[in-house]
């Protein structure tokens, strides 16, 4: 129970700090920052909306809302997928990449100050190993549900 409550408290507090920093530095929310990051890491800075929703562990309607907000800001562009009329691609724009690069240093600072730098190398490795196990299990069972 101690581990569970510590996980809940820490993740909620850290996400609140991250969200505050992102709003101040980049005018972005944490989900928007994560969305932009996933697109920046993708080949040609674009992904199918369905794939992006799976990566972000969000509903397609929730993703559509976030992409619409980012599209209004000129940070993301949507277009139909060439080979599939039903498929839609989300593409990170140059302005989106600029916004991500402006927010990233503060994001890294907040994560380091409030998590990474507080733990020893061994603790970070153990934490990574533990979350890898849980993530693999959850992603595997999610596909079956």
TrEMBL record:
SUPFAM superfamilies: Winged helix' DNA-binding domain (SSF46785). GO terms for molecular function: DNA binding; DNA-binding transcription factor activity. Keywords: DNA-binding. This is DNA-binding MarR family transcriptional regulator. It comes from Kineococcus radiotolerans. Residues 1-136 form the HTH marR-type domain. GO terms for biological process: response to stress. It holds the Pfam family MarR.
């Amino acid at each position: 129970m101690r581990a569970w409550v510590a996980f809940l408290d820490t993740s909620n507090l850290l996400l609140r700090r991250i969200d505050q920093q992102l709003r101040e530095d980049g005018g972005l929310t944490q989900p928007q920052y994560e969305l932009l990051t996933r697109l920046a890491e993708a080949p040609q800075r674009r992904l199918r909306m369905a794939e992006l929703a799976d990566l972000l562990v969000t509903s397609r309607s929730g993703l559509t809302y976030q992409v619409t907000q980012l599209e209004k800001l000129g940070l993301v562009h949507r277009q139909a997928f060439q080979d599939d009329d039903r498929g839609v691609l989300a593409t990170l724009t140059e302005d989106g990449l600029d916004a991500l690069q402006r927010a990233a240093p503060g994001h890294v600072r907040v994560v380091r100050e409030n998590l990474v730098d507080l733990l020893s190398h061994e603790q970070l490795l153990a934490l990574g190993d533990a979350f890898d196990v849980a993530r693999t299990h959850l992603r595997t069972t999610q596909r079956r549900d």
